[in-house]
């Protein structure tokens, strides 16, 4: 795979502080992780060190009978392993090892929660897609929100958002699609990701615990392409939340560093030119008008995904959208997570 020089590791960490905190990294841990990172060689080991510490705390707490606090530490450990592995495109064996720890330790905490996470699988084109189904305790036949990640968002790091849904009586189903998370080791990115979303809905319709007539979808980052594309062809989706909008990939020829390496790794292409060819057909043009369900959009004016494209998406919707944008916010509005994430959950509660 073509090599791309990454920006300095600390710069990358500093640029994403808002995301780390919103996804469950503790502030003190983040400061200490930063101290340990002086180069990209340090990156996975610094994050993994604090992942191990969190898991060890979870063990001690579980032994003392404090299962909820233990669960929180196991989940936090998983999130740290996630960030340890998510840029390791040039070290595939290390990435796989860290990803395995991420999955393993998450499930150690999953069953200890008051609203546990169930690991399930559903068939898709010859493989089994892994997902996390979470049902709100004490709620009969709840609606469900499908949580679709992006280039480096997986089912595990959707956890803090699923908490918001659970609090509102909404079940959640987060899964790793082709090119994402653990599925990427079996199937790379495909052109028709919406087919995988349809397979996820097929699976949810087999679960008697939920109301399959009230299924919504949230798409984060690149998921802000996958989810609206699915909503344009899938009448079983009753609400759509775009956590950032990826209208197209016209920007692919200009990508460098981490963004370019991620695009190549997800698509299985070897050069930027091949990746440009792979992504050139990606556009929501001609699809947006077919979305009939209620839509929520949040986007930042400083996002690398142009806000002009997000505004175009809203203009082309047949029935408009609820919009929560900030001109001075970055990618996926992580710096406004305390406002935007509950707003998405409230939108789902209102429309499902």
Account of the 3D structure:
There is one protein chain. The chain is α/β, with parallel strands linked by helices and 352 residues long. It has two domains: 1-113, acylaminoacyl peptidase (de novo design (two linked rop proteins), Up-down Bundle); 117-248 and 283-352, Alpha/Beta hydrolase fold, catalytic domain (Rossmann fold, 3-Layer(aba) Sandwich). Helix content is 45%, strand content 14%. It is built from 13 helices and eight strands. It has helices at residues 9-15, 17-22, 27-36, 43-63, 67-85, 92-110, 159-167, 193-204, 223-233, 257-267, 272-279, 307-316, 337-351; strands at residues 117-124, 127-134, 144-148, 171-175, 215-220, 237-243, 295-300, 322-326. The chain has an eight-stranded mixed sheet with strand order 1-2-4-3-5-6-7-8, with helices on both faces. Strand 3 (144-148), helix 7 and strand 4 form a beta-alpha-beta unit.
């Amino acid at each position: 795979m073509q090599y791309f020089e990454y920006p300095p590791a600390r710069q990358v960490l500093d640029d994403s502080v808002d995301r780390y905190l919103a996804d469950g990294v503790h502030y003190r841990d983040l400061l200490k992780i930063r101290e340990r990172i002086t180069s990209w060689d340090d990156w996975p080991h610094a994050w993994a060190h604090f992942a191990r510490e969190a898991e060890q705390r979870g063990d001690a707490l579980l032994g003392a009978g404090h299962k909820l606090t233990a669960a929180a530490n196991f989940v936090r450990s998983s999130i740290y392993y996630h960030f340890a592995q998510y840029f390791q495109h040039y070290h595939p064996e290390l990435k796989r090892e860290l990803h395995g720890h991420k999955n393993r330790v998450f499930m150690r905490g999953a069953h200890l929660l008051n609203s546990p996470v169930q690991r399930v699988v559903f068939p898709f084109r010859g493989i089994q897609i892994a997902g996390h189904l979470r049902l709100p305790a004490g709620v009969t036949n709840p609606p469900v929100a499908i949580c679709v990640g992006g280039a480096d968002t997986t089912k595990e790091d959707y956890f803090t958002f699923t908490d918001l849904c659970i609090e509102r009586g909404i079940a959640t189903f987060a899964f790793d699609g082709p090119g994402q998370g653990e599925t990427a080791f079996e199937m790379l990115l495909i052109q028709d990701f919406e087919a995988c979303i349809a397979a996820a809905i097929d699976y949810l319709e087999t679960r008697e615990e939920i109301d399959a007539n009230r299924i919504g979808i949230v798409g984060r980052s690149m998921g802000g392409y996958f989810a609206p594309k699915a909503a344009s062809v899938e009448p079983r989706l009753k609400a759509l939340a775009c956590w950032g909008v990826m209208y197209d990939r016209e920007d692919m020829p200009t990508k460098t560093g981490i963004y370019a390496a991620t695009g190549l790794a997800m698509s299985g292409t070897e050069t930027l030119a091949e990746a440009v060819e792979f992504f050139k057909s990606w556009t929501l043009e001609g699809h947006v008008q077919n979305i009939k369900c209620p839509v929520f959009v949040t986007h930042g004016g400083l996002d690398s995904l142009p806000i002009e494209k997000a505004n175009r998406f809203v203009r082309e919707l047949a029935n408009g959208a609820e919009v929560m944008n900030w001109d001075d916010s970055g990618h996926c509005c992580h710096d406004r997570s305390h406002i935007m994430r509950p707003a998405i959950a409230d939108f789902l509660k209102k429309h499902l």
